[in-house]
Amino acid sequence: MATPATDIDFYAESTIADPVSAYAAMLALGPVVWLEKNGLYAICGHNAVVQVLRDHQRFISGKGVSVNDNINQLLIGSTLNSDPPQHDVTRKITFEPLSSKKVVLVRERIEKESKYIVDKMLSQPEFDAAAELAPYLPLTIVRDLVGLGDYGKDNMLDWGAATFELMGDAKERHDDAINRLKRLREFLEDPATLDNLSPDGWAQRATALGIENGIKPERAAELMRDYIPPSLDTTISAIGYGIKLFAENPEQWNKLRDNRKLMRNAIEEIVRLNTPIRAFTRYVTEDINIAGIDLSANSRVLVVYGAANRDPQRFDKPDTFDIERRVVGHVGFGQGVHACLGMNLARLEMSCLFNELADRVKRFEMVAPAVQAVNSTIHSLASLPVKAVLE
Ligand code: HEM
Question: Which of 29, 218, 281, 326 has the most neighbouring CB atoms within 10 Å?
């Protein structure tokens, strides 16, 4: 079968600005598409993406999930960039406080912070839902729970964005991101970091458990990589896009306000449509045919979560925001052994914040065009000026 090919550059600023058109163009060609500019196959169809994510032996993460092999050398070894059995050891350690049973223990704290930020935003005639509202909760909550010293706390957002930038292949943004990531590595390798961890924080707990499980002390601090880079921009993106979707679809906001039982499904629908992580890669360990296309051993494939979540073969009217749709099976949080470790926390943060807003805001009106943020991996907004119309 001839391979469908496209000249879409997945990491060009034009694609980052409008990934949805790129997803549609790729899906129109087929579930697996050759990206000429990036020199790799993109897995786009929902079935094909699920097949790849669930086959962690033939599509491995242990050689890194960035598109760039030099960068992978910096990232290999974290839970995200490893395979079972090593993956399962670190995941078990870092997942415990994020399990559905444990995460509810921080609900009250998240509700209190949600009220604080919503009060602050609604006291202004207009606010920026992407730059001012969306970062507050993820940053405040994760920062406190992880329990880093001041230097680490103040740099978390920057390190997170740099890590996601490096998952892509945009040469012009690369050097800056490498320097920022080097600072994260220096921080993790600095013995003072361990001394400054808060005794009851997640980082301290994971480090101690890591050492108990035979991880060398100088590597154990790296376990906190599970909490820092992946927890911020992802949730910030979902909150910002959530407000945009509700501003553009006021009838969906009314439905949610009238029936809060729809909250969980609404959150999944936001994550499906927005898909904060556009794509990661997998390394192929043996020749395999996916959706009629032969993939060679020792090649890398791009797994495009964003395209799979808009595949018309899987989701009826995929571009429509419908908080009542049957959204189960979306891949916005991944699937298989690497499915998102922090999804319970992300859902809780979103649900507390949207609940607080739904109590008080009749509708959102966009007062200026939204501005897309530029990042190779995260699909997020830099700015979303809105006015909240109150009861
Ligand atoms: C809306 C918010 C979030 C989204 C959309 C999201 C998305 C994802 C996706 C798609 C993956 C799968 C990666 C793969 O297939 O290789 C993933 C994995 C992961 N996420 Fe999230 N994430 C979110 C929030 C969080 C939070 C809050 C944390 C931490 C507190 C977190 C920590 C992780 C970690 C450590 C992994 C790697 C898990 C593994 O390899 O076993 N994420 N996330």
Answer: 281
Alpha-carbon distance 263 to 240, whole Å? 16
Domains: count for the chain: 1
Residues spanned by the domain of 355: 5-390
How many residues does this entry show for the chain? 391
Which of 202, 340, 344 maximizes ligand 1 atoms within 8 Å of its Cβ, making it the mutation to test the pocket? 340
- The CATH number that applies at residue 76 is 1.10.630.10
- The reply to whether ligand 1 has any atom less than 6 angstroms from the CB of 238 is yes
pLDDT in tens, 82-139: 999 999 999 999 999 999 999 999 999 999 999 999 999 999 999 999 999 999 999 9
HEC string of 341-371?
A: CCHHHHHHHHHHHHHHHHHHEEEEEECCCCE
pLDDT digits (tens, 9 = 90+) for 167-187: 887 677 788 888 888 888 888
Ligand 1 within 6 A of CB of 231? yes
Tokens of 103: 């995460």
CA angle 184, 148, 227 (to 5 degrees): 65
